[in-house]
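Hi support team,

I'm filing this because I wasn't sure whether my run with adenosine-5'-triphosphate finished correctly. The job status page said complete, but I'd like someone to confirm that the output block is well-formed before I use it downstream. Pasting the exact inputs I used:
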Amino acid sequence: MCMFQMGIVLVGGVYFAATGRISLGTLVVFITYEGFLLWPIRQMGRILSDMGKTQVSLGRIGEILKEDLEENDGKLKPEIKGNIEFEDVYFSYDDNKPVLNGISFRIKAGETVAILGPTGSGKSTLVQLLARLYDYSKGSIRIDGIEITDIDKKWLRRQVGLILQEPFLFARSIKENIKLANMEADDSKVYEAANMAAIHDVITSFDQGYDTLVGERGVSLSGGQKQRVAIARTLIRDCPILIFDDSLSAVDTETDAAIQKELRERKDNATTIIISHRITTLARADRILVLDKGRIVQSGSHEELIRQPGLYRRIWNIQSSLERDLEYM
Ligand SMILES: Nc1ncnc2c1ncn2[C@@H]1O[C@H](COP(=O)(O)OP(=O)(O)OP(=O)(O)O)[C@@H](O)[C@H]1O
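And here is everything the job wrote out:
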């Protein structure tokens, strides 16, 4: 029972006892039994709300298991260069609320495109369609000219490296966490990926180096360090298409710049899509798409977008004036 409820019961109870309407014994028994009753009722409320979450999670696990059993016979397994084309793509999670409303754009193999947009504008949904986590209802998405629904789903997902904002690390060593995506990779490949993700020096500063355990029994990594381990885990797969879904947000600006430089200088330059709210990250991309309510409302290079009114210029003004203020502090 919270202090407030306890206070009301006590004040009321003492008043009734003092005016002789109830005995002191009745008051004590009432408070005791109320305490017994309240806790199970609260627990019941929690169980009911957890049951709702369990139902949704069970449904999703079922979908994943079903997908694994799906036949992919006859689907293509092409070698992918990384040319991406969205043509008039529509998508909604449920029929009433459209999330993407006619998205069209092209990315050439090896290009870096950044996406900016208010929360809920459909950025994550757009990149998840590319990895076929969901299927679009109308329009066409092509990779190297092939409709992605004609490509074997597992094959496609191996070519598209999607790094999420809150990556999951297992309670294993850092090396095992990086190698997870490519068990055949040797140590030099692990170090190369960690270097590109700007996390090698942090790892080697630990007493156990790459054998350091992550999680409760080992080191607790910061949000930015976890993101960089997850980036290394994706880079070790050598995917021709890389997607950073706000996954550079917890990394400081300089490290972010270092990672982007490494990616650009990679031998086989991957097609890269970066979702970010940080203007310095966006500015380094070859092209920026601005999304609003499931539509592309602006598209161009940093120089082009700061010359026209719109969300990009507003964010640029706010973030640059903040940086100037910080310099003077
Ligand atoms: N699995 C889902 N089921 C139902 N609706 C969803 C699901 N995922 C996202 N949405 C809804 O779709 C819309 C677009 O979401 P999305 O995550 O793509 O936006 P976003 O631009 O990436 O936002 P943020 O910047 O906050 O990550 C939102 O209204 C969101 O509530």
